[in-house]
Give the backbone structure.
Amino acid sequence: MASSADMSGSGRLRGGRSLVPALGLGAMIVSMMQTLVVPVLGVIQQDLHTSAADVGWLTTATLLSAAICTPLLGRAGDQYGKRPVLIGVLALTLAGSVLAALSSTLPLLIAGRALQGAATAVFPLAQAVLRDELPAERLPGAMGSVSGTLAFGTGLALVGAGLLTRGPAPDYHQVFWLAAAMSALSLAAVALVVPPSRLVTGGRTDWRGAVGLTVTLVLLLLPLSRGTAWGWTSGRTLGCFAAAAVVAVLWVGVERAVPDPLVDVRILVHRPVIFANLAGLLLGFAMFSQFILVSALVQTPSTAGYGFGASVLQTSLDYLLPSSLASLAAARLAGILVRRSGPRRTLSVGAVAGTAGFALLAAAHNTSVLVIGAGVLVGVAVAFGFAALPALLLTAVPVERTGVVNGVNSVARSVGSSVASALLATLVAAGPSGHPPAESRFTLCFALAGGAFALVAAFARSGATGSHSDSAAYRAPGAAGSPEAEPVCRP
């Protein structure tokens, strides 16, 4: 095995300044795969003559795949190297996109979407690569840039889907061909730019832990995503939740007993990691709330007494894209703030902006300018949150656990998004005979999303997510990607 010094030199030469754009493109693929299909679900339902419940599996399959693959592949990146795992993940995403683009039956589309769900593992792997390869002074800005592209990908996916399916005869296959083209581009960029990992832990794969985690996540996320169709008090829904709790307890016992666990649960109970994951869950809830609520609000006919009667394309271009652009623009600023003031303060500033944005939406959503302006505030908050959370974990875990812990944090965000999707879909669902919901329901939902950001701000300001000295980790010589750096793990 090559020495750390040798690998460091070759890695820095090979990655160079192209490393951040290549990983940013990969992160953009993550959010694209999650939201690309949402605008065309109605088109697919009509073309395949299926029900809304059945077509909903196109989002459920991706969610389940993402939740299962992300921690497993994050750990695989730590064990065998980030570059080959990144290439494998993007190859699966490309294969899923092509399969979906060529398919005209629901089972094959679901299979393609499940393969696309593996893309979620790209984000924690990309963060781990940045930690391995970049010097301390570049790390916060790089993390912010990559995180910003994650947020921007949502807007790009929505706009792309809207443009490709406009007209009297929309074809959903074109949306999946767009996904395939972007996946192929990202795969080529990673293969050409990302260097071999300088730190490979090796070790045996904890298959019992992998099975336990998979079963736990499926039992938790399946009722969250299907509860509206099954009924929230049905035996199937409640049984899944109860079984998830039982299996989770058994899984923790297994992970504590094995010498080289898939997820070191002792690290997960450290205070900074606990609150980073809680903040991730709340961030996922708030981010998805903005997407769902603004989409539903602006597409409501103005005859309801509120809403603007916008089309899907207008919704994407006029109301959702500005928020994504704000995230992209704020990402670099977030990285600078992380370096100068620390991730805790950055998270706090972003959460305050998000709270203000949703408060504005709750109080006044009767003009386009107010809705777009509030969305920009939320976009800034999302960018700051995405930049701060990996930085918080950076100071809290050993370097060899970066991939899997960031993967767990990504799962926490997915759980938050699932809760938002399930809760808000129920609260703002159309009433009898297709009548729009009462405007007060939107006000309530905006207030709930603002409350999620307010909790994040409270965590950050209380110091629960880390200490005031967190920013020192980014200024210390060798703090990132150097052999002399000591991993930090605070209780």
Q: What stands out?
A: The chain has a mean pLDDT of 82. Residues 207-261 form one domain. The CA atoms of residues 278 and 341 lie 22 Å apart.
